[in-house]
Each structure stands twice: as structure tokens, then as C-alpha cells.
Amino acid sequence: MSRRRFNPDRDVAEWQGPSVRYDLLKEVSIAFVVVLLLAILFATVFSSPDERAITLQSWSKAAPVDFVQTATTELDGTSGTATYGPPYTGTAGASQKLGPLSLESLVGVHIPLDTAQQFVIRPLRTLPDVPVLDRAITEYQLAPASRKAAWNAAYEKAVASASFTGGVLRVPAGAYGPVGTMMSHLLDMARTGALDGALTATPQLYGTDYTKPLLFIADGAYMGDVASNRHLLGEQWGMMNETGNYPGQAWLWLYTLWYQVPPMNSSSNGDVEVWAIMMLLTVLLALVPFIPGVRSVPRLTRVYRLIWRRHYRAVEA
Predict the structure, then answer these.
(1) Is the pTM of this model over 0.90?
(2) What digits encode the pLDDT tens for the residues 61-115?
């Protein structure tokens, strides 16, 4: 049988030159110990540059009026989370599309959220021995939808002029029924930290699912203001940022770059468009060894001689 023709981009010639004994395990062990010691040293000296995480408690203490305004939109179902679409809600037309295809709709609603129940009413029900609150919740839940909508609209209008003085939320009087009582107690619950616990409660020993509090916080204006002050907005450094005006993770630059480029920077389908671009680039990268011409670039440019320059100086001397 005839032998296959040698292809320098595919085949490797058998090495005929000198060889040097190399203990890879020893090198890896030394590198691990050195990096570990440096990590401990730098962590001790410099600590973490990151700020404390935003919680419902810290938000409600720093911006109580914004918290209550946001909680009202959770109750009436007009918040960003309540109208987000899959995977949280079935809001029609909320999904991003890649051409005619909606990837979110294909996955469906697999983390169903009823913000009124899960962010407001159920947490309030966990407060013990508060008869006035129990009556307010019962009155609200038994009321017809039209009455609830009227109460919510009235409170939303009133809370726009609210203030927080002397540790008390002061909202102008209005025909908002039991909503005022519910919001006042929810704010108190958040300021004590109990609301964080209620939204992360789990039958397991440790609660590690922060989806609900994160979505609740993201619906308000407070986190956006903090992000702006920390240079975390997309027009600053975006999601690749470390705290302060620093670029952060270099491996995310390629991903976040596309959010600054038209049409993704203004498209309502920006997320799925960026995802599609990155998937295409990933496939192309995986196929580099099979693309004629492209796979020959390292060999033709002889860049390997720069990397292994000590070796080539030695063998060609």
C-alpha cells in the first residue's frame, strides 16, 4: 500500500534531535506551592477590593422610598421581573428573538415567579402575631381584581411623594386600602434582614439560591445608582469590571465588546445577538485546525521559532 503524503499542517515528523529529562510532576508541585503562598500573601496584605454585596436589608436602609416604590410594582405586576417573560413569566412578546426564533420561548417558563405572592404576600405571612397585617393581607387577597388595581394605582401615585423621616415611612393619605399597611410592614421586614431570609428560605440546610432577592433588587433604581458610582454600567466598563474604574476580567472583553457595537448596543434582541456572534466565533476557533490556509499561519510565520528561540540557538550553533 502507498504511504499517505506528508502534510506539515497535519503530520508530525519524528523528532531526531537531543532530548532532556523533565519532571513535570515536580514542576507542577513547585508552581502550585509558589502560587498558593503568593495568593495567601496578597490576600493578607491587600484584602479584597470588592464592595459588600447589596442585600434587601442594605437597600431598604439606604433608599427606603425606592424600596417601597419597587415593592409596589411587584405587588401590582408591573415590575421588570413581573413582565420579563421566560424563564420567569409567560408575558407575551417579552422574549428576545434571533430572526424568527425565540430561544427563551423554546426553553419556556421553568422558574415561574408570581412577584405579588413570592416577593410581598408570602413573606409578610411569615411575620408572627401581627393581626392588623393579617387583616390587611386577607382584605387585599379577597378583593376583586378591579379593586386591587385601584388600590395599587392610588398607592403608587401617593408613594411617589413619600419620605422617610424618624425611622418612619410617611406616605400622603389616599384611597389605597390595605396596601399602605402591607408596604409599611414589608419595609420594616426588609430593614431587619428578615425579608432576605424569607426569599432565600429552603428545606435544605444551606440556602444558596439568591434568584428572588437579586431580581427584586434589580427592579429598583438603587442598584443602578450603585453600579454607576462603581463604574459598572455598560457604557463605563460593564460586567467585566472590578470595583472602581478598572477593566477587570480580560477574558470577558471579547464578549462585552459586542454590546458597544451597532446594532447590538440599541437592539431589543441584543443579548441573543451577542450570544449568536460568540457561538459562531467559538465554532470557528474550534475549526481552525481544519481550515486550509488558516491552520498554516503558525508554520508560515515561523512564530514557533520565537517561542522556542533558546532551543533553536542551541541546535543551530
Answers:
(1) no
(2) 999 999 999 999 999 999 999 999 999 998 888 788 888 888 788 888 989 999 9
Residue 209: left (phi > 0), alpha (psi -120 to 50), or beta?
beta
Most distant pair of Cα atoms in the chain: their distance: 96
Rg (CA), the chain: 29
Cα separation, 67 vs 159, in Å, equals 11
- The residue length of the chain stands at 317
C-alpha cell at 112: 415561574
Residue 98's DSSP bridge partners are 101
**What are the backbone dihedrals phi and psi of residue 101, each rounded to the nearest 5 degrees, phi first?**
-95, 130
Nearest CA-CA partner of 61 in 172, 176, 217: 217
Range of the structural domain that residue 262 is part of: 230-286
Q: How many domains would you assign to the chain? A: 2
Q: Amino acid letter at 115?
A: T
Q: Is pLDDT of 148 > 60? A: yes
Distance, C-alpha 274 to centroid of its chain: 16
In a domain, 217, yes or no: yes
Does residue 255 lie within any of the structural domains?
yes
Q: Are residues 64 and 130 in the same domain?
A: yes
Any residues with CB less than 8 A from the CB of 263 and at least 6 apart, and which? 273
The pLDDT-based confidence of 116 (bands split at 50, 70, 90) is very high
